[in-house]
Every structure is written in C-alpha cells, then in structure tokens.
C-alpha cells in the first residue's frame, strides 16, 4: 500500500467514526455510543471542571443529553485532519457545528474536536474525545420559521 493510499484510508476511517458519532448523538443512541467508545476512553470538555475517564463516565454525558430538553439536534463535523501517532492510533482534529432545538428556541454551538481513535478488538473506537466549545448563539423561539416553511419562499413574519 502506498503512503498516499494509507493516508486516505486513515482519513476515511476517522471520517466514518466521527460521522457515526454525530449521528448517534443526534439520535440520543447511548447504547450505540457505547460501541464506539474504548473502555478506557478519556472525555475532556471545555464545560467540565475535570476530565471524565472510562466508558461509563463518557456515556453519562450523553445520558444527560438524552434526558435534556433538546427536541432535535444536528451535529456536523468538518475540516477533518488526521495524523498517525507512534503507536498506530490516529489523532483526529475537526471543527463542529451543533444546532439544537428546545421548547423556548434553538442554539447553535460551534467549536473543535481533538480526538484520538484506535483499533480495539478489530474495530476503530474513540480512545479520547476532546470537545472545545468556542461559542453558543441563542435563538429565541419567535425567530424560528414554522416547520412547514419553504427554504426558498418568502418567510412569514
């Protein structure tokens, strides 16, 4: 395998895992998230006082999210960069945008992921998940268009 092919494969693996993660978060699929988290995963978030260590501590964040007032969510990751580490694991850096709706409006949160992934029992999983929120914008409910509004017709006011 050429170096270029190997780099493309690493990028593909990282992209697939990150996409799986965002879809599972949006679906509030805590059981699914457990399958892509290493037993010794470390979660670091800018909103937390200290890192969370271990799969159950990692999943607690997403259990809280599933119980929250979030009605719908859409997480998107972009600007993916992958670097192979000395032990064969991968450092994965990306930017994210998460849009969530709540009973009183919506939030747009953006920031950075700086993760590490590795093979565990023949499957690529997260060994470290680092979430750095840059900012969150709040949108009042009366600023949201009706659900049946067309994206290209004039918006009702």
TrEMBL record:
It comes from Zafaria cholistanensis. SUPFAM superfamilies: NTF2-like. Coiled coil: none annotated. Pfam families: SnoaL_4. InterPro entries: NTF2-like_dom_sf, SnoaL-like. CDD domains: NTF2_like. It comes from the Bacteria. This is SnoaL-like domain-containing protein. Signal peptide: none annotated. Residues 15-128 form the SnoaL-like domain.
């Amino acid at each position: 395998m050429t170096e270029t092919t190997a780099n493309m494969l690493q990028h593909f693996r990282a992209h697939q895992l990150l996409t799986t993660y965002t879809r599972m978060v949006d679906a509030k699929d805590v059981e699914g998230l457990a399958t892509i988290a290493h037993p010794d995963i470390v979660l670091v978030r800018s909103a937390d006082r200290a890192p969370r260590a271990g799969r159950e501590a990692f999943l607690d964040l997403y259990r809280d999210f599933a119980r929250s007032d979030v009605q719908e969510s859409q997480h998107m990751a972009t600007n993916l960069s992958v670097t192979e580490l000395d032990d064969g694991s991968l450092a994965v850096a990306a930017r994210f945008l998460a849009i969530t709706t709540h009973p009183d409006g919506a939030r747009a949160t953006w920031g950075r992921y700086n993760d590490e992934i590795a093979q565990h029992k023949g499957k690529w999983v997260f060994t470290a998940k680092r979430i750095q929120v840059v900012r969150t914008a709040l949108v009042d409910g009366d600023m949201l268009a009706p659900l049946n509004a067309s994206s290209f017709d004039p918006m009702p006011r």
